[in-house]
Amino acid sequence: MSEEMKACPVCECPYGYSTGEDAFTCPECSHEWNPKEVALESGLQVFDSNGTRLQTGDSVIVIKNLPVKGAPKPIKSGTKVKNIRLTEGEHDINCKIDGFGNMQLKSEFVRKA
Prior knowledge:
The protein is mainly beta. The protein has one helix spanning 35-41, and strands at residues 5-6, 16-20, 23-25, 32-33, 46-47, 53-54, 60-62, 80-81, 85-86, 93-97, 101-105, 110-112.
């Protein structure tokens, strides 16, 4: 039985090792991933304000007050947004924010929670 290694999609360490069926772990950053899912997402890379890579399903925190057209108040700094979806374009995060509904945000105004 030969052990196959795969490069980590987060830190690019070449020594990611198999931890079971369709699961790999990085020995340097402890990131766990499924190579089949990474292959589907590999074309779209979105980074938060700190340079951390975001993935669909992550939670993020808004880092500054964001005005919303047609709304009487802005999205306040510190608002936690759960279960984001990544998309192509200038506003690369689709999400739902309590009190505002479905929104599109720029990744430069959020940090990973």
